[in-house]
Design brief:
Chain lengths: 142, 82
């Protein structure tokens, strides 16, 4: 049964995806590949301050800022997982419009077995991307 | 302890120490999935404590993240007065 909650969740997803992409377009990507989020008044990464190494999320905002400008290679170098997250965010827009239009509950997606597999795959990509970034730093020497 | 809860536990700890909200949100989804499975009878009831524990751990990680942001913003705005 299609409820008001289903409608609200689909609308919230649509609004969130549009806001994220708009903010990414508004931000100027940091040339060093991370730290773009500080333009929003957010603190710098404490993990990087302490360890001098990027955390798995470092470069995500920069990646989005590059990706909305269609500079996909730079986005990939900033954070490979971020590019995946960017395309996932873009795909949320037509999906949520479709859910609203056809009055389909979001639970049809979240309760499917494929959803949990996608969550695990995303997590694996997140940490693989981190290893990739760490090895890039290791081999480039900075 | 269900597989999802085990992962949610690891992700919650990662969220507390380095990864911020991303792993916290993923951990929350996985722990909620286990809680729903237990409620629907698809998973053993014995795992309920673990599922709830990891669910709250991820919530704590997310709350601490927001709290950290508030402390940062509070500190930054106080700094502007000097």
């Amino acid at each position: 049964m299609y409820t008001r909650t289903d409608k609200s969740v689909a609308a919230a997803l649509l609004a969130t995806a549009c806001s994220v992409l708009s903010v990414a377009l508004w931000l100027k990507p940091a040339a060093i590949g991370y730290g773009t989020h500080t333009q929003l008044g957010l603190p710098p990464c404490y993990f990087q301050l302490v360890t001098h190494l990027p955390c798995p999320s470092c470069g995500l905002t920069t990646c989005f800022a590059y990706a909305v400008r269609f500079q996909f290679w730079k986005a990939f170098l900033a954070n490979p997982f971020g590019l995946l997250a960017f395309f996932a965010t873009v795909s949320v827009i037509p999906t949520s419009i479709y859910l609203l239009w056809r009055r389909i509950s979001f639970r049809r997606i979240t309760e499917s077995a494929h959803f949990i597999k996608a969550v695990y795959l995303g997590t694996a990509c997140y940490f693989t991307s981190w290893i990739f970034k760490l090895s890039m730093i290791h081999f480039s020497g900075h | 302890m269900g597989d999802n809860s085990k992962w949610a536990l690891g992700l919650g700890i990662a969220s507390l120490f380095c990864c911020g909200p991303i792993t916290g949100i993923i951990g929350l989804i996985l722990a909620k999935k286990d809680m729903d499975d237990i409620a629907a009878g698809r998973a053993p009831h014995l795992d309920e404590g673990w599922a709830k524990g990891t669910f709250y751990l991820n919530i704590i990680a997310l709350v601490l993240f927001v709290f950290g942001l508030c402390v940062f913003w509070g500190g930054a705005s106080r700094f502007r007065h000097f």
